Amino acid sequence: MASPNQRHLLSALVQNVPGVLAHISGMLASRGYNIDSLAVGETEDPTLSRMTFVVVGDDQVLDQVRKQLEKIVTVVRVLDISANDYVERDLLLVKVTAPAGGVRSEIRELVDIFRGQIVDVGEGEVMIEISGRANKVQAFIERIDRYGIVELVRTGRIAMVRSGSQITSSEPAAEPVQA
């Protein structure tokens, strides 16, 4: 049995129509399920979007969230990515205080260690991009904090099941709308 604080990574393939995000997030909130992370974007099929959720709870919470998602007409399919072998990524943009000279060199070295890149340079600040697993992104934030974080933005988690892996999925909830 899963611990009550286990993170579950769900991927919902949804019809790409206005209001889907509001409908799904509202439904989850009204039932008391907290979304720890959420990312939404178009797929290879422009009529479909993928919503990747991280929800925290035990297996019963996961089961209830999946059942609730599957009841929504615009939801085509729900996958429990966390039950599979998968690749996940978060993206971070962070602006830090970086006066020219030694401090800026230290920051550049830290960015290189984390395989990130400096994407903008100002007079006294730099903007850094880091992508990777959530724990890598968090570790970078903890190390760069001492330089003075001016602004930080982070995406929700995105993930895909590795090629050749068995996929744990629900049955399709609805057929996609044909344009």
UniProtKB/TrEMBL annotation:
It catalyses: 2 pyruvate + H(+) = (2S)-2-acetolactate + CO2. Keywords: Amino-acid biosynthesis, Branched-chain amino acid biosynthesis, Transferase. Residues 9-83 form the ACT domain. Its EC number is 2.2.1.6. It comes from the Bacteria. It is an enzyme of class 2 (transferase). Pfam families: ACT_AHAS_ss, ALS_ss_C. Pathway: Amino-acid biosynthesis; L-isoleucine biosynthesis; L-isoleucine from 2-oxobutanoate: step 1/4; Amino-acid biosynthesis; L-valine biosynthesis; L-valine from pyruvate: step 1/4. GO terms for molecular function: acetolactate synthase activity. NCBIfam families: acolac_sm, PRK11895.1. PANTHER family: ACETOLACTATE SYNTHASE SMALL SUBUNIT, ACETOLACTATE SYNTHASE SMALL SUBUNIT 1, CHLOROPLASTIC. Belongs to the acetolactate synthase small subunit family. Dimer of large and small chains. This is Acetolactate synthase small subunit.
